[in-house]
Structures are given as C-alpha cells and as structure tokens.
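During the reporting period the student researcher (J.K.) took over the structure-prediction task from the postdoctoral fellow and processed the backlog of single-chain submissions. One of the processed entries is reproduced below for the supervisory committee.
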Amino acid sequence: MIPRPRMNRRTVLRGLGGFAFGLPFLEAMRGSKARASGVDCPKRLIIMYTPNGTIPQNFWPTNVNSETDFTLSPILEP
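J.K. obtained the following structure tokens:
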C-alpha cells in the first residue's frame, strides 16, 4: 500500500481561506450573460472605520440634492 501524505490543519485552513477569498472573483468572471435574465444586482454594504475619529461637520457631504448629486467636503475627496 502506498502511504498517503498527511495534511495538517494549518494547510487545510489556508487552502479553504484562499478558496473563500477567490469566490467573488469567480462570479465576476462569468460576465454579463449570467445576469441577462433581468435579475437586479445584489445590494452591497460598505462599512468604514476611522480609529481616531473624524471632524463631524467636515465628514458629511454638503449641497445634497439627491442620492447622486452632492458636494464632497475636502476630507472626503479622493
């Protein structure tokens, strides 16, 4: 009988982590044909953490007319 090499727990967890990290990229590579049936894209949630805080009056956008028409403050500009 041929001896099989044993994999330790760290190797298995590292492989599973890499696989889980790559799953969203696989979906993105399917292209637009997979979504051509009229199904809307899922909503996304972005959470931003600032450990040292922020200046509240400079954090929120000004001149908000709609969800896409607003002015960014200097600390929010790219």
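The committee noted the following: The radius of gyration is 23 Å.
J.K. will present the remaining backlog at the next meeting.
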